[in-house]
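PROTOCOL LOG
Step 1. Enter all chains and additional molecules of the complex.
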Amino acid sequence: MTVKLEREQFFIYIYPPWNNKYFMMEMYDILVVDDEPMIREGLKTALEIEGHRTFTASDGNEAIRMVNENKPQLIITDIIMPESDGIEVICNVKVNNPEIKILAISGGGRISAQDHLKIAQQLGATGIMTKPFSTEDLICQINKLFLDCKS
Amino acid sequence: MHKELIAFIIYFLNLPCLNHLYFNPSYHTLCALILISLIIFCEYYFKKFPSVQFAGINFKKRNIFRQLSTSYFLPIISIQDKKKPAPFEISEARIYESFFNSSPIGFIRTDSKGKILYCNQAVLNILGFLSQNELLNFNYFKNPFRIKNTIESFFKNLENEPQFIHEEEWLKQSGNHIFIKENIKSIINEDGRLLFFDISIENITERFRLERSLEITEEKYKTILDQLPIGIYRIISTGEIVFSNLCFAKLLGFSSKQELIGKNISEFLSNPQEYESILKEKSDQHLSIFISEFVLNKQDKNKIWVQNTSNIFYDTSDEILYLDGVIEDITERKKSENDLKKLVTAINHISEGILVTDFDGNILFVNPAYEKMTLFQINELIGTNLRFLNNNPLFNELNEKAWSTMLSDKTWSGMMFDKKKNGENIEVLTIITPIKDNDGNIINRVVVKHDVTEERKLEQNLRHSQKLQAIGTLAGGIAHDFNNIIMGMQIYTEILLKKIPENKNEYGLLQKIYSAQNRAKDLIKQILSFSRQTDDERKPLQIHLIIKEALKLIKTTFPVSIKLVDKIKDCGYALANPAQIEQILINLCTNANYAVNGHGTISVELKSSKYIKYPDGKIIKNKYSWILLKVKDTGCGIEQKIRDRIFEPFFTTKSVGQGTGLGLSTVHGIVKQYGGEIFFDSEIGKGTVFYIYLPAVE
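Step 2. Run joint prediction.
Step 3. Record the structure below.
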């Protein structure tokens, strides 16, 4: 997979393996929810480099508040968090703001990450990813999400 | 004889001179001579004419020779031509008188009132009188000797019964008791008037006494026989019971002997034919005594077991006369024998080892289970001491404890290490219980042994798998945090990689960090797959295709000196993840490579199996069919002491830095996740075989 990065332009051209054509990628408002500050900030930085506007929240409650404040187009949320977890976020968003896409990410724990994500998917998460993943994978996944919606 | 002959000759020779011959005393010598000559002569004639026997003689005097000697001799009277002379015609009364007087039986004639008219000497003797006169004073029927008044019944019934015979006890004058047999007969004339009583009395005291003593003796024996706890009988050849004691009658359910006697023995036999055939066989062999055990049907249809000892008596023509026998009820014994048989069967089939020893611990009895447990033969064990079997290095201490417990009459139980015939040790739970006699002395000990070797092994396996599980859970827990950490690092590294131009030195350094992070990521993945928390999807796979592909890859990485043999068959599908199957094969092959150390053969085999066969020969068969992956090497083998640990995560025989210790634990984790089985068989210096059974799907 080749990624052509042109920082100053509004659109990014991606050459995905399943499609021979270039297509344009829009910039989105993205909310990153993770209790781990390193991941939270890391993802924020990476996404901002890609040109997305990014907000962060450290737990479910904060995430819900941010959603109401900023109305993002995409929420990237961890599943297992202290206080209120990702599942709550998903449920809440699905009820109040069903148009917002959700990408659930998990690194596993007592039960496997796959199981967590399956639950999330059933609850209405648009996409799932297991940790650890690279930024490339993430960007691909985001693009795929919006592409799937459009088509 | 001679006198007849003389008469005979006189008649036959017809000598009239002698017919009326008179001898005077002066001629008696001559007469005697003539007689003697006559005797000689007649003997001759008698021999000559033996057929002339009709002659008869009538004597006037009874003894001619006596008269002859006193010179008074009656003439020999004419010999009459009679065939049957009447020899007592004249002297009859005298003879009767003589009989009457000399008879030991007392004869008495009384008149109709009972006054004694006359009696003989015997009456006096019996009653103890000296003279007849003393007796004549009594009225016979009212004599003072009678104790009982039985005679009156005779008088009452006189018309119908003229004769009265009875036996009675009398009291003699001297005070002695005598027993009398009295026979009274009334004599009646033509008019029906009572004339006399003719009475005979007989002293039967002696006989009576004998009879009484016999009776007593017989009674004694009868009582003894009846009180015997064993049945005694006599059966005649037809089978009829002619004698039985009380016990035999009771044995057959009768309340008295009389009910039983006369019945046929075949009524009570459950199998009369068998009995007859036995009897016939014995009589053919002419055996007299035989012992047999059989079942008798009681009168109330209950069955009893009896032991019978019979003695057969034969007559002169070897036919069975009768059968005497002693019969004993052995139902209880049979029952306890049966109970014992049950008990013995149970002991012989129980899986616990059971031994019986004497007080000192010398083995008297061993059941087959213990024989199986130790592989010793029963006859090797019997007679040896318990100590012989014990192989515990701590035995002395243990022994002291055991013996002190046992000596205090208590049951001892504990673990012992017994040795098998092949030298192996088995751990046995041992319970030693004393058996006491009635006085409370210990006579035997019962030793029950339960082999816990297998249980110990299972326990160990369980502990082992629990350990693995715990490590897995722990690893899973850690993995989550590790994931987060690694991911954070990776994101920043990636950001940096994007920001720094590729031609700068820092870019290269960052790439090294990045690849190290990737390795850490893989490691986490391995740990997770071991702890069965992988996220990989499983789908039906044709395992043989994956294996073939993977083998191609492996072959290229292995040195040429290692021979890689494959026997891959199409085994259908299994629910699996291709990457994990590859991982299994690569891990096993890498280990094999390490074991053969550059030289040897590694063979990979894939085939279907209907059951799981363990290296120790145990076979488990259930509804699943299995795919067996066998990886065999000719390497160094796995040391005994580390065999338990090889599936443990982070356990490795490689030096630090060369292996993670996760290879086999990952394989183990995957196989268990698939519901499969993994085990191995290894021999030091010869090689190792790993068996992996995966459940096949349709």
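Step 4. Note key features.
Chain A has one domain: 31-143.
Chain A touches chain B through 25 residues (CB under 8 Å).
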